[in-house]
């Protein structure tokens, strides 16, 4: 299989706007869960950049459990990300929900995110597989490692070799936190596949105070990068404020991580 270590021995390095993902340096993707106001988005982008982030995250199209929750700004949200990129130089990652938006994402995003809920949306996988735009594929809520890798294979088999795998926690019997971060998935995926492995400690826990310890654990376990939700005013965030850390906390975490990354 194209995703496997047997097919390709050396780890894949994906270049996005001058940033290498999968190489020696940790890739840090940070930003709000959802793109909200322009000034807020640009402000957070500047803060995460100065703290050491290499990619800006932000959802313009949000896959919400309730139809009454904020659904994202859509096209306008992508424009805010483009403006934030213009001002900070940070490439952007954003989630696509619909194959009909592919042209829009090819133009405005540097990395296309496939969310956990769409890990087995095979038409969407085939669509992003038809281009060489980097893809961040998130593990499904209850997907096995095998199923996860087969979804990546869907993308790669269409021609796109720029795929990153993202462990974002799985559903277990535990209800204390939102999901259970599968730390063993990190070395397992690295062993089975040559693709970069990114960990999302925010959705994996659903709790801001667990983001730092799980980030450290993920880096110690060999993650190539992290996807972290940062918001300057989490209490007022339109989505996932309870798992978002403030820029000051993010800065502190970046400092602590540099020591761990050196030791791995
Ligand atoms: C996200 O990263 O914005 C997101 C919705 O995450 P997940 O698909 O992992 O739930
Ligand atoms: Mn979120």
UniProtKB/TrEMBL annotation:
E.C. number(s) listed in UniProt: 2.5.1.54
Keyword annotations of the record: Transferase
Top-level class of the enzyme under EC nomenclature: transferase
Domain named DAHP synthetase I/KDSA: residues: 18-257
GO biological process terms, semicolon-separated: aromatic amino acid family biosynthetic process
GO molecular function, one term: aldehyde-lyase activity
Protein name listed in UniProt: Phospho-2-dehydro-3-deoxyheptonate aldolase
Residues of the full protein shown: 70 to 333 of 337
């Amino acid at each position: 299989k194209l995703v496997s270590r047997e097919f390709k021995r050396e780890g894949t390095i994906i270049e996005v706007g001058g940033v290498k993902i999968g190489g020696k340096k940790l890739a840090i993707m940070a930003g709000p869960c959802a793109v909200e106001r322009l000034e807020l988005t640009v402000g957070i982008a500047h803060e995460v950049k100065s703290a050491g982030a290499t990619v800006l995250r932000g959802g313009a199209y949000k896959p919400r459990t309730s139809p009454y929750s904020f659904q994202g700004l859509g096209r306008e949200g992508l424009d805010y990300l483009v403006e934030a990129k213009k001002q900070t130089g940070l490439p952007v990652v954003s989630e696509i929900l619909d194959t009909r938006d592919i042209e829009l994402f090819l133009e405005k995003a540097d990395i296309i995110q496939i969310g956990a809920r769409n890990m087995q949306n095979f038409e969407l996988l085939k669509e992003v597989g038809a281009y060489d735009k980097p893809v961040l594929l998130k593990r499904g809520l209850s997907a096995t490692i095998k199923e996860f890798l087969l979804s990546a294979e869907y993308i790669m088999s269409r021609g796109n070799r720029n795929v990153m795998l993202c462990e974002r926690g799985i559903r277990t019997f535990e209800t204390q936190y939102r999901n259970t971060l599968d730390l063993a998935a990190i070395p397992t995926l690295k062993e089975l596949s040559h693709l970069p492995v990114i960990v999302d400690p925010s959705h994996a826990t659903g709790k801001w105070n667990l983001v730092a310890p799980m980030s450290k654990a993920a880096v110690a376990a060999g993650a190539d990068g992290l996807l972290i939700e940062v918001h300057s005013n989490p209490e007022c965030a339109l989505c996932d404020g309870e798992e978002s850390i403030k820029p000051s906390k993010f800065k502190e975490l970046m400092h602590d991580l540099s020591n761990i990354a050196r030791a791995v």
